[in-house]
Specification:
Rossmann fold, GMP Synthetase, Chain A, domain 3, 2 domains, 15-stranded mixed sheet, binds adenosine-5'-triphosphate, binds magnesium ion
Length: 587
């Protein structure tokens, strides 16, 4: 299906974007220049993410500029300036130092999006420790898996979460030495400390540990969409990518109010919910609450959010409501909306233009890449359904794996193949913890292989086809689940779709769609036939789904991604395997 490109004209910019001419920016780009726009640690003692995010601003005119604005559940608003953040993160770093926790030790936070999480993140980085945040809704087993594989030495959590989910794991986690309880007024015995007490007596001054750009800084587990989550390790130099993407993709300018809806338990919430906006010295909104359409629109209005970063699943949830937000809310401050995590249906890109006043800018990256790698830039034409073009400084290619394990780089346009990135960018993961063989397998020659199938058009735009494992092979055709899902989404009754290949004797695989409908729509055979006809007319009979099953909700993981592997396992009556990252119904 053809969607018209969305052209940008200089008149449509309220603020002149940093990247105005893609080719020119790429031609002049170098990571060395990016490095020069950052500070480095005083005295040439290396590079530290938290210094770039906090201290370098706290020592300038931004000292009293709001860094974080935290929106609590009951209307509470807490604001922290760059100086506040410097002091709180210094205190936390001192708490760690006093406990004997040092460089290379891993500090986990297992809590809701509360201020302590943010102080702990930045304080751990200052201390040279490795920081790893976990979704607060995880149950004991996924928590155990991650604490164990991440060699957790410190866990920051609340008393209730600790008692319900961690206490039972203690014996299996001999490396876990310290539990810092965010809400305990007194220590609970050896190794179980009251964080407020320790913070109170800790100094507000801290000299950041000398960290090398290659020292480990962040540990993030992948979303578990395709299998057991992998622990990707990142180094302090990743901040080059955070900064460069904040500048060229998200287009941060000094007065921006930025809101990233992702939880830090997902890499997006750490890289863009904390680091990138702080490195840019702007104000970052944190909402403590889960998705709620009305609350979200009110936040956009009241906080005067100018740049918004969210996910396709959230956008689809807003679209499903069929309301015209601009009639009900004042969204005039919003100048850009970005999305990541799953393919963004063309329908959703266009919806943004109408409903929010700005088309949605899709971008692509992975936990492993540490930051945005392919993006739609504000000044560049959007081709709905395309992830955009590679970040300046990133070489992306479409490759074919050969039988002898070598790679062929596909030079023709519009040919499907695996997306590969030339290795060596600053935020490239440096390891999968405890899975060295798996890590090494991701690299062939100078390429990192992403596992995603894409095509590149004649103008260098990349189009997502599907994850390599999800591509459907039916009667000799290769079918992109994303294309089928997007076509279904174009029907007014459809809120969400997940498409799988179901084994079939005749076809090899049969295209089967699971569809969630918009509220008020009746799921019956007539609609089923209509949807089959609708997709056949657009995609042809070979690609259109043969079977459609209606579901109230599609299974998703905590990062909000549709779990096709689970749809398939259920369809085949297979055991559901690892579903530690599943979102529970109605969340
Ligand atoms: P796991 O690796 O554990 O199966 P995951 O791949 O979902 O989980 P993430 O690192 O959070 O974990 O997600 C990266 C993947 O998400 C990408 O490889 C891609 O498949 C998908 N993705 C991210 N952004 C986009 C996008 N803009 N368009 C299409 N797919 C996207
Ligand atoms: Mg992955």
């Amino acid at each position: 299906m053809h969607w018209q490109a969305i052209k940008k004209t200089p008149k449509s910019f309220r603020v002149t974007p940093h990247l105005l001419d893609y080719e020119e920016t790429c031609a002049h780009f170098s990571w060395e220049t990016i490095g020069r726009e950052l500070n480095g640690l005083p005295g040439g003692k290396g590079l530290n993410i938290a210094h770039e995010a906090v201290d370098r601003h706290a020592n300038t005119h931004l000292a009293h500029h709001p860094a974080l604005r935290w929106l609590g559940p009951d209307g509470t608003v807490l604001e922290y300036t760059y100086t506040d953040l410097q002091q709180q993160s210094n205190r936390f770093a001192n708490v760690l130092r006093q406990l004997g926790v040092g460089k290379g030790d891993t500090v986990f936070v297992f809590a809701d999006r509360i201020p302590a999480l943010y102080f702990a993140a930045l304080g751990s980085l200052k201390n040279g420790s490795i920081f790893c945040p976990l979704f607060s809704a995880f149950g004991p087993e996924p928590v155990y898996q991650r604490l164990q594989r991440g060699h957790a030495k410190v866990l920051v959590t609340t008393t209730q979460i600790f008692q319900q989910k961690v206490e039972q794991l203690r014996e299996r986690l001999p490396q876990l030495q310290h539990i810092l309880l965010i809400d305990a007024s007194d220590d609970l015995g050896e190794g179980h400390w009251s964080l407020p007490q320790k913070m109170m007596v800790a100094s507000e001054d801290f000299t950041i540990e000398a960290t090398d750009p290659e020292d480990p800084a962040l540990l993030h587990f992948t979303s578990g969409t395709t299998g057991m989550p992998k622990g990707a390790l990142h180094v302090h130099k990743a901040v080059f990518t955070h900064y460069a993407t904040g500048k060229f993709v998200l287009d941060f300018h000094p007065d921006d109010i930025f809101w990233c809806t992702a939880d830090p338990g997902w890499v997006t919430g750490m890289a863009y919910g904390i680091i990138a906006p702080l490195v840019a010295g702007i104000t970052c909104i944190i909402d403590s609450e889960p998705f709620n359409a009305e609350r979200w629109y009110k936040i956009l209005e009241r906080e005067q959010v100018s740049i918004w970063y969210t996910s396709p699943t959230a956008i689809r949830r807003l679209m499903r409501l069929d309301i015209q937000p601009r009639r009900l809310y004042d969204l005039r401050h919003l100048r850009a909306v970005h999305s990541v995590g799953e393919p963004l249906n063309p329908e959703a890109v266009i919806w943004g233009q109408d409903a929010l006043g700005t088309a949605i800018h899709d971008n692509w990256w992975q936990t492993e890449t540490g930051g945005i790698m392919i993006a739609n830039y504000l000044a560049m034409e959007i081709r709905p359904g395309s992830m955009g073009r590679p970040l300046p400084g990133i070489q992306a290619a479409v490759i074919r794996r050969q039988k002898d394990h070598s790679l062929e780089v596909i030079t023709e346009d519009n040919v499907e193949g695996e997306l590969a990135l030339q290795k060596g960018w600053p935020s490239m993961f440096r390891a999968y913890v405890d899975e060295d063989t798996r890590y090494r397998k991701c690299f062939v020659d100078q390429w990192y292989l992403t596992g995603d199938i894409v095509r590149r058009d004649g103008d260098g735009y990349f189009w997502f086809v599907g994850r390599a494992d999800d591509i459907i092979k039916t009667a000799g055709h290769m079918v992109s689940p994303f294309e089928v899902e997007s076509t279904l989404m174009a029907h007014p009754a459809v809120a969400e779709a997940g498409v799988i290949g179901k084994p079939d004797v005749l076809l090899g695989e049969l295209v089967k769609a699971f569809v969630a409908l918009k509220p008020g729509t009746v799921a019956d055979d007539q609609l089923r036939l209509e949807l089959i006809g609708f997709t056949r007319r657009r995609l042809g009979p070979a690609v259109a789904p043969r079977e459609i099953e209606f579901q109230n909700q599609l299974p998703k993981n905590r990062a909000g991604k549709i779990m096709r592997r689970l749809l398939k396992d259920r369809e085949l009556g297979m055991p559901e395997g690892d579903f530690s990252t599943m979102e529970t119904e109605n969340e």
